[in-house]
Amino acid sequence: MAYTKCITLSILLLFTLLGAANAEKLPATDVKRCAGNKPFPLEVRVAGCIKPPCIIYKGTVQVFEIDFVSHKFVTNVTALVKATTLGVITVPYELPDEVAAVCPNLMYGAYCPLYPTEDVTYYFEFPIGEYPEIGVKIEIYLVDQDHDIVTCFTCDIKVKKGVSGNKVAELN
Ligand SMILES: *[C@@H]1O[C@H](CO)[C@@H](O)[C@H](O)[C@H]1NC(C)=O
């Protein structure tokens, strides 16, 4: 009797733990490769977006979780963002230093240097400032201490006004 109860409790506990683990992990986002055969991340999770274009609100911070593998010994990794509008203009997007520094923003206790084949997750908090309210293709790439590209992907986004302002606009 006590034995059965114990098993039942263990099973319940197992399902609870599995449920918690699933709830924490964001779903993968369908991001695209960069031109020129650059290394592609293992997976990218843009919070709240599975299928781009991702709707991103001005004045917010959009979280990206980027799983990537380093292919060499790297001591320093920096994130860079380029924005392409209407397929022509490509402008670098200035990131605050503490956001662009990949090493201090690795998840699950990982830290630099990174060794070849090591896979890690960069928690990228993309600050959305003033941005034209049109579709933009952003290219996010990480470079190492030698300016070699560690990983690169693109994601279509659509920047909108804050949530409340947006609701009013939708009623019109
Ligand atoms: C890493 O690289 C960035 C960009 O080149 C530089 O600003 C930063 O100081 C470097 N950090 C370290 C710890 O070397």
Automatic annotation (TrEMBL):
Gene Ontology annotations for the cellular component aspect, listed alphabetically: extracellular region
Q: Give the range the annotation lists for the signal sequence.
A: 1-23
Show where the MD-2-related lipid-recognition domain sits: 31-157
Record-level GO BP terms: intracellular cholesterol transport
User: What are the subcellular locations of this protein?
Assistant: Secreted
InterPro entries recorded: Ig_E-set (IPR014756), ML_dom (IPR003172), ML_Npc2-like (IPR033916)
| Keyword terms | Secreted, Signal
Q: Which Pfam families does the UniProt entry name for this protein?
A: E1_DerP2_DerF2 (PF02221)
Main location, first listed in the record: secreted
Query: Could you confirm whether the keyword Secreted appears in this record?
Result: yes
Top-rank taxon: Eukaryota
Q: Family assignment? A: Belongs to the NPC2 family.
What's the protein here called? Npc2d
Its organism's taxonomic lineage begins at:
Eukaryota, Metazoa, Ecdysozoa, Arthropoda, Hexapoda
